[in-house]
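Reading a protein record of the kind used here takes only a little practice. An example makes this concrete, so a full record is given next.
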Amino acid sequence: MYEKLMDFVRQKPEVYAPGTSKFWDDPHISKQMLKAHLEPEIDSASRKHSFIKKSAAWIAGLKAPEGSQLLDLGCGPGLYTELFDASGFTVTGIDLSQRSIEYAGAQAALKQRRIEYRCQNYLEIDYQEAFDIITLIYCDYGVLCPADRGQLLKRIIGALKPGGLFILDGFTEKFWQDVPVKQEISYEENGFWSPDAYVCLNRNAHYPETKNTLEQSIIITADECQCFNIWNQIFTKASMEQELSNAGFNTVMFFDDVCGAPLSENSKTICAVARKAQAFKR
């Protein structure tokens, strides 16, 4: 275990290097994630619920919901999908977390909402011109490495109907200050990462050359040592527009956030509404 720990802390990871573990379906961590999603007043696993309501209403105003098909990628426990359904969209939600999908499905059944949920890696979607709107919200796009972003955009543009909209957001240069370079160690009897006692080494790192941030948590219990890496890409209007243009989107509108605030230079996020051409050429 000591050698494994030394390997983790010896050097700064390469950009988008994976951790040793994924927490979406860890029995304990996924339970903590769901709890964080459902906390209405904290920007954590999900944004504050008041923001989500405002955001869903703005998105519903971009295209008439009645008769429109909407796909929410990374839907979590269905906070957005329920609002989209209530607006009149026919909604499909996809997420990698089995626990979140099970919760979302149970809530839809309880409230008699006709939402289709799928537990799937959204990098593997294979729809053909099925949706009028596709959303990828809370800066999930920048968590992906450039190759995965390119792959996803190809699948999204294939899944959109001609003239369909793809709505996404990402972090801007203002986000650097939210992830200051640091290294901290703490001890917990139990908590987010484990039901048992653990030591947590938190490290944040900046990669100015590629405009990336890393939030790394190394978790040491009596039995194992795990490493969790959360990457983010810093975007400018030009860099996000270039990626969308390369994928084939011919019109892109930009905003400060997914509530439609006008674009400025003061926001920590940037939102793009990208339109697929009416006559898309593959």
